[in-house]
Amino acid sequence: MEQESLNKPGYEIPPEIQQQVSVTTLDRVYNWCRRNSLWPMMFGLACCAIEMIAMAASRIDFSRFGMEVMRPSPRQADVMIVAGTVTKKMVPQIVRLYNQMPEPKYVIAMGACASGGGPFKEGYTVVSGIDRFLPVDVYIPGCPPTPQALMNGLIALQKKVDNEPIKGSRWYSKEPVPEIPVPVLGPDLMDPRNYDRIKAAGQQKAEDQAAPAEGQAVSEDGSENGSAAGQAEAGAAQVKAS
């Protein structure tokens, strides 16, 4: 961040002391520190990870923005770059890593696959976007995005950090931030947050399937009873005739 952007707008500082004096707010200083020390987590899912690696090389060099410390441990990172195709097999691991990251933490959906499924959206093994399970802060389009596009997405994240006040932030609230339930990989990927809806849909389907079967059983019983009654009336008529 430039020196003048650290100062609060509306306050003119003489040029001779601009390097020594800043008139600003606590939110602005706090966010200035955070925006220049975003540590991404070092993991990749598919071809977008190659572009992420290229961004860390000398041509783009995102260390200029204080982001060069890519941590292999989620407990030392605060930015998750979901780079690549998100399969149903990988979603539980991604959510578990996100829960292990300390607050404040951010998520970047890099590429078409992480944003909405990409060319594999209709596949039975692919999730149509990581935002179905994690809160995404920045979407980066492309298949795959260029390193410059990813750098632009990180700059957009910095702008979001600039506007976050200390008062009212979720990581400074009195109540703990709830963890996101880890999805369960069974016949299909099930989100624990939707268990009630899944249970209700299963019960409704079972009731719908049971209703025609009960109606068929009643009709069969009625036909049998009707034939027995008809035979009894015929026998009574024969007795009267004799």
What does this structure look like?
There is one protein chain. With 242 residues, the protein is mainly α. The chain folds into 2 domains: 143 residues, Rossmann fold (3-Layer(aba) Sandwich), CATH 3.40.50; 49 residues. Helices cover 42% and strands 7% of the residues. It is built from 7 helices and 5 strands, in the order αααβαβαβαββα. The strands form 2 sheets. A 3-stranded parallel sheet has the order 1-2-3. Strands 4-5 form a two-stranded antiparallel ribbon. Helix 4 links the parallel strand 1 and strand 2. Helix 2 packs antiparallel against helix 6 and helix 3 packs across helix 6. The longest helix has 47 residues. The protein is elongated. The N and C termini lie far apart (115 Å).
Task: Please render the helix and strand layout as text.
Layout: H1 3-6, H2 26-35, H3 48-55, E1 79-83, H4 91-100, E2 106-110, H5 111-116, E3 138-140, H6 147-162, E4 184-185, E5 189-190, H7 195-241
Parallel strand pairs: 1-2, 2-3
Antiparallel strand pairs: 4-5
- State the name of the first-level CATH class of the largest domain: Alpha Beta
Number of domains: 2
Largest sheet: 3 strands, parallel
Radius of gyration using CA atoms only: 31 Å
Shape, principal axes of CA atoms:
elongated
Q: In order across it, which strands form the biggest sheet?
A: 1-2-3
Number of E strands: 5
The average pLDDT score comes to 81
Helical content, roughly? 40-55%
N-to-C order of helices and strands: HHHEHEHEHEEH
* Low-pLDDT windows of residues: none
Structural class: mainly alpha
- Identify the quaternary structure here: single chain
CATH architectural name of the largest domain: 3-Layer(aba) Sandwich
Task: Please indicate the percent range of residues in DSSP E strands (runs of 2 or more).
Answer: 5-15%
CA distance, first residue to last residue: 115 Å
